[in-house]
Specification:
CATH superfamily of the largest domain: Type I PLP-dependent aspartate aminotransferase-like (Major domain)
Structural class: alpha/beta
Number of strands: 12
Number of helices: 12
Shape: globular
Number of domains: 2
Largest sheet: 7 strands, mixed
């Protein structure tokens, strides 16, 4: 956590306000399965921004976690060829072999050439379905699943849908809001599962190799299943890809499922392709579950993803996009340090998010800050309530640089006015 003034936080986790999300109760006539279900706040913010734009308002949307770049030409062309070549029928439940093999080789290369078995990879309709499949396969009524907070909005929802119980574990501000083994032991001594995202959405924090190893050892000793969401692994501002559970020895991976995909680093969000690398029995159970839900992921999109992961020329596109994200990150960080020096924020070392604290502005919550900002200044951000801590706000710099610069002008002016 970068701090140059303002009040020190205690890392507590706030509940999401009803103004943002509305749980569905059994009294509404719906199934009890939906009693904890809440609309995704990030999607809601994006839809509101689009609505305002359609109404003629000058709104800059920095709420969406979606790259603004087009899909690289090599996977895009592969998808078109697949359609024209008649690859439009049901694929295998677990995913086509071309993609699973490409994903296995890709993950192996990212982690120093370690063996990765393509038979243990299941392809789904986006990494969100991969997460859903894992949670439904591993967890059930009464199971406690630890989730470091702030956390992506869908983790608790998916765990609830599996009839398990999500427990948010707050991270320390001085440690970029990451959690330690000590935090996990203190808050969830009897956990069956842990969902860990690194690089992290919403903070941009990255767990080091040593931190990941310590958590893996903790999980092995306590027989805790780890779901490692590494969808942002390639968007890392250090050397090479971000540290991964796949960098660890095999004996620490017996209860680990790694979720990956092409949406973020390859600018393929709309293609909806995610993967999960799991121990053999878990992978087979996930494929069986998927056979009764979506059957499998879009066939042409799988061939496009296979080209993205398997053609080394695409790596040049990834490097170019990550370099651009780095420039934008540097713009945001420099602007806050220079013009809003009293505002605390997490120093983003990966992903494309900037998570900053706003309660120093007259005690405003993140929800109040975002509501007033979009209304008076035309910039859409996501309140921290969506992620479990309404003292903060998330800014996505996955936006055109010109839009980002205009938005920063408005945010700085708005924040300075609040401080007057």
């Amino acid at each position: 956590m970068v701090r140059s003034g303002g009040r020190k936080g205690n890392g507590c986790v706030a509940r999401l306000p009803v103004a943002i999300l509305s749980p569905m109760s059994p009294a509404s006539g719906f199934s009890p399965n939906l009693q904890h279900l809440e609309t995704s706040a990030t999607i809601a913010i994006s839809q509101e921004a689009k609505r305002r734009k359609a109404a003629g308002e000058d709104v800059i949307d920095l709420g969406a976690g979606e790259p603004d770049f087009p899909t690289p030409s090599i996977p895009a062309d592969a998808g078109v060829r697949a359609i024209r070549g008649g690859k439009t029928h049901y694929p295998a439940n677990e995913g086509i072999l071309e993609l699973r093999a490409a994903a296995a080789k890709h993950l192996s290369l990212l982690s120093g050439g370690r063996p990765v078995n393509a038979d243990n990879i299941v392809v789904s309709n986006g990494s969100k379905q991969s997460l859903f499949n894992v949670c439904f396969t591993l967890f059930g009524p009464g199971d406690v699943v630890a989730i470091p907070a702030p956390a992506w909005v869908s983790y608790p929802q998916i765990v609830h849908l599996a009839r398990a119980r999500p427990v948010l574990v707050s991270g320390e501000p001085e440690w970029s809001l990451k959690v330690s083994v000590r935090d996990l032991d203190r808050v969830v001594p009897g956990a069956r599962g842990l969902i860990l995202c690194s690089p992290c959405n919403p903070t941009g924090a990255v767990y080091t190799h040593a931190e990941i190893k310590a958590i893996a050892q903790w999980a092995r000793e306590r027989k805790v299943w780890v779901i490692a969401d590494e969808i942002y692994r390639r968007i890392h501002y250090g050397t090479g890809p971000a540290p991964s559970f796949l960098d660890l020895p095999d004996d620490l991976l017996e209860r680990v499922v790694v979720v990956y995909g092409v949406s973020k680093a390859y600018a393929m969000t709309g293609w909806r392709i995610g993967t999960a690398l799991a121990p053999g029995p878990v992978a087979r159970a996930m494929a069986a579950l998927q056979s009764h839900t979506t059957t499998g992921a879009n066939h042409p999109a799988q061939l496009a993803a296979a080209a993205a992961l398997g053609d080394e020329r695409v790596e040049q596109d990834v490097a170019r996009m990550v370099a651009e994200f780095r420039k934008r990150r540097d713009l945001v960080v420099a602007r806050f340090r220079q013009e809003l020096p009293g505002v605390e924020f997490v120093d983003p070392l990966g992903a494309f998010y900037f998570f900053f604290r706003v309660d120093s502005f007259g005690g405003l919550s993140g929800t109040e800050f975002c509501t007033r900002l979009v209304t008076t200044s035309g910039v859409a951000l996501v309140p921290g309530a969506a992620f479990g801590d309404d003292r903060y706000v998330r800014l996505s710099y996955a936006a055109a640089t010109d839009d980002l610069l205009r938005a920063l002008d408005r945010i700085v002016a708005f924040a300075k006015k609040l401080g007057d």
